[in-house]
Design brief:
The protein has about 400 residues and is of the alpha+beta class. It has helices spanning about 1-20, 40-50, 55-65, 140-145, 150-165, 175, 225-235, 315-320, 335-340, 375-385, and strands spanning about 25-30, 65-70, 85-95, 110-115, 115-120, 215-220, 240-245, 255-260, 265, 275, 285-295, 300-310, 350-360, 365-370. The chain is built from 10 helices and 14 strands. Strands 4, 5, 6, 7, 8, 11, 12, 13 and 14 form a 9-stranded mixed sheet that branches. It has a 3-stranded antiparallel sheet with strand order 1-3-2, with no helix packed on it. It has a two-stranded antiparallel sheet with strand order 9-10. β13 (about 350-360) and β14 (about 365-370) form a beta hairpin. α2 (about 40-50) crosses α3 (about 55-65) and α4 crosses α5.
Amino acid sequence: SSSSSSSSSSSSSSSSQQKREIHYKGDALKVVAKASDAGNRLDKVIMQYYPDQSRNYIHKLFDLGLVSINGSNIKAKGGYKVRANDVIEFRFIVLESETEFVPEDIPLDVVYEDEHLIVVNKSPNMVVHPGAGNWTSTLVHALAFRYKDLMEMAQQDAEDARKKGEIDEEDDQDIEDGDDSGGGEDEGHEQMGKPMLSATVRPGIVHRLDKDTSGLIIVARHSDALAKMQRLFADRKVKKTYLALTFGNPVNEGCLQSMIDAPIGRHPRDRLRMAIIPIENGGRFARSLVQAVGSCAKSKLHLVKVIIETGRTHQIRVHMQHRKTPIVGDNVYGSGGVNAKYKSSAQRPMLHAYSLEFVHPFTNQLIRLKAKIPDDMVSFVQSSIFSDFGKDPAKYLK
């Protein structure tokens, strides 16, 4: 009897411990299976809709009983054959191994730094901060290794914010808006009033770039600098210029530049995407000034500069889609045919955060910075528009 009681107690303790280890990230997710999903395995269907998640991560959700079909309480199995219109519901979680944050020695292209700010030319395919499916090798891991004060600032600010009741233990979903887990072309000003820190994984991050977008990103080295830079973004006092390769000309015929003024909001049917949404339906004001740089009449490829007045999630990509001149290599908002044609040259969206201009919040000096254009984009421009682009890009980008 004593042995049975001990076993029961141990089992109960183990079960309780397992429950305490589960920390949910965001609300429950729901996917309605399409006809094209019918007959496929459930685990593969989920991975198709959430390609950034690893197979092992998805299987962990099944192991924990966090996936259901059509509202059933019966735990779904990964091998279940999906039927059209099946309602698939599940939740993402923070695994225990994912809560450990270890700085990593990853090379960085630092274009500016002082005791207040750091500006990095982020390489393509680098996630800005840890998030679902991307728990290592992020920009934040590299920064934390190189700048020890960032981790100290993160820990202190996160603790202070929690004491004041300003942030929850779970991540704020507005901060997570956007893809890579870290949001649109540039979202710093949208987060005013919300601490950008959470459990020491976002130290000093003022704004973000998508995983596949290269270019300049500002990082604050202490909380005062973070607040001041966020204010500059909120007041739209940071000039942000991007380079993009588009299929078709987004600039009005006969013009050197065109303003795209089209509000952006969450796509009504695909929650992972953004779309042009009227203000009255929840869209948010979004403006992008597009300037022609060069083009090839035969291929219909255009190199443009885009100066964003606002910084909504995926703003440039959505605005280019709206113009029916998608960014080459964009698998979310682009053209499948165009992407297939240029697959060898554009294995990511051809978008680069080229320059930043702002008044330093502490020295009052005007800071003007430009980021070296990544090799894949230089090669593409050379092969399609300017054959000598790599020698002196600046002469075309005045």
